[in-house]
Amino acid sequence: MTAAGNRIAVVTGASSGIGAATARQLAAAGYRVVLTARRKDRIEALAAEINEAGHQATAYALDVTDREAVQTFATAFRTIAVLVNNAGGALGADPVATGDPDDWRQMYETNVIGTLHITQALLPALTASGDGTVVVLSSTAAHATYEGGAGYVAAKNGARVLAETLRLEIVGTPVRVIEVAPGMVKTEEFATTRFRGDTEKAAKVYAGVAEPLTADDVADTIAWAVTRPPHVNIDLLVVRPRAQASNTKVHREL
Ligand SMILES: NC(=O)c1ccc[n+]([C@@H]2O[C@H](COP(=O)([O-])OP(=O)(O)OC[C@H]3O[C@@H](n4cnc5c(N)ncnc54)[C@H](OP(=O)(O)O)[C@@H]3O)[C@@H](O)[C@H]2O)c1
User: Fold this and answer.
1) What would the pLDDT profile of 150-181 be if each residue is shown by its tens digit?
2) Number of compact structural domains in the chain
3) Carries keyword Oxidoreductase (predicted)?
4) Which of 5, 20, 77, 224 stands the most exposed, by the fewest C-beta atoms within 10 Å?
């Protein structure tokens, strides 16, 4: 394990799901976590919870698609040990024939451009730490497509390519790039956001699946990867529940 000490870990999209779980686990591993997301009340509540548990956390409201706001945020840091690019998600599940271009744009803006903004802004501080780690939350959607998934698949492919290319470009600097690609994770908001609040449609995503991954399962893999010794780069972790063999092959007991 690397000694986290007083080192800073920034987590985007820390107001729910995988981001919140990752913030909790990195704080428990000894990092000073900086929680960012658009919903200030939620990240402030989580920061309070982490601090009450005897760890260190601060909250900073941030929309990763707002380049200027991201750049202002970055000026607060001289060195950063870990950046977890988690903010993102899916919108809609329409076929290519009828998909809404606005959904596609928004997914690209958040999952790709948002990751680009914050990674660019924090790269100098990650390098200055002498041992920086960039994590990109892609998805199994970045590795294989599925019907109704094209907009999200395209965006997550963008995030994957950003991670892979950055790794090539910064080799020789003290920063490593880790891609974590989860399959089906049952989080409170992911599917509900995708289906715009339609909880019935959202529930169908997980129907009959005995044990989808939890946010904690994914946070656990992220925390494991970032706490490997600095010379060890876990390029890519693909993590699925046992009941899921591929994006389209899921065992359901209905
Ligand atoms: N759940 C899955 O099955 C699954 C599988 C593979 C990959 N993933 C990926 O894992 C990540 C987390 O997913 P999750 O399941 O935890 O979803 P979630 O609960 O919906 O969390 C998404 C997070 O992203 C934040 N966010 C969205 N747009 C943002 C923006 N413009 N600026 C800043 N923050 C923004 C949200 O916070 P605010 O709304 O407060 O801004 C929220 O904290 C996403 O990138 C998702 O695509 C999820």
Assistant:
1) 999 999 999 999 999 999 999 999 999 999 99
2) 1
3) yes
4) 5
